[in-house]
Design goal:
It is a single chain. It contains 10 helices and 3 strands; from the N terminus they run αβααββααααααα. It has 222 residues and is mainly alpha-helical. A 3-stranded antiparallel beta sheet has the order 1-3-2. The protein starts with 12 loop residues before the first helix and ends in a 14-residue tail after the last helix.
């Protein structure tokens, strides 16, 4: 089944091609191991092959695709080691961010987290994968912002792109979108109660739930 990529019609074709392909990879629309050809992508996006070629070059430098001479370009597969490193770092960063958020967070910030989760539950109920995925990302970004730790925020940006890709792929494999959203509720309840031990337990379990994925399992049969 071909990915549903929007056609590009405005100016700045090179940047829009890059942004569109990057978004498709990070959202899980283009999956690890999926072949990418200039001809197919240029036809789907409605652009010439030149901006596609440049976009693939940049994505290769970002580590999102890999090009093997005489074999073509594919979305980069993530190994078990990649997943373990990524989720190990994510647990360290988000657990510390959560601890600081419990100390420094203001009522309006917790209300913002609650609004995100409520919106995520509604999106899950109506089967809106894109909205669930975006709100899932917003929740964890907001948690990081509540930490008020600029250095950690910078470190988070270094891993956030890969985290987003994995989160999207995990969510795509889970057919119960409502369950994805509701998994955030006990974590948020514990945070609002300022129960650090319970919140830390829920956060680590929430993050680690996808840590056992390996790249070979991510290609879905549709």
């Amino acid at each position: 089944m071909k990915p549903n990529l929007p056609q590009i019609k405005n100016m700045s074709i090179r940047e829009q091609s890059l942004d569109t392909l990057r978004e498709a990879i990070l959202s899980g629309e283009l999956k690890p191991g999926q072949a990418l050809t200039e001809m197919d992508l240029s036809r789907q996006l409605g652009v010439s092959r030149a901006p596609i070629r440049e976009a693939l070059r940049i994505l290769n430098s970002e580590g999102l695709v890999e090009t093997i001479p005489y074999h073509g370009t594919t979305v980069r597969r993530l190994t078990r080691a990649d997943i373990e490193e990524l989720y190990g770092m994510r647990i360290l960063l988000e657990n510390y961010a959560m601890e600081r958020a419990l100390q420094l967070g203001q009522p309006d910030e917790f209300a913002h987290l609650r609004a995100i989760v409520n919106a995520m539950v509604r999106a899950g109920d109506r089967g809106d994968f894109r909205a669930v995925n975006a709100l899932d990302r917003d929740f964890h970004d907001a948690l990081m912002e509540m930490s008020r730790h600029s250095l950690m925020a910078a470190m988070w940006q270094m891993v956030a792109m890969k985290v987003r890709q994995v989160m999207a792929l995990v969510n795509r494999r889970n057919s119960d979108l409502t369950q994805i959203a509701r998994h955030h509720l006990p974590l948020l309840d514990a945070m609002e109660a300022r129960d650090q031990a319970r919140a830390g337990e829920y956060l680590r379990a929430h993050i680690a739930s996808a840590g056992d994925l390996i790249a070979e399992d991510w290609l879905e049969t549709e």
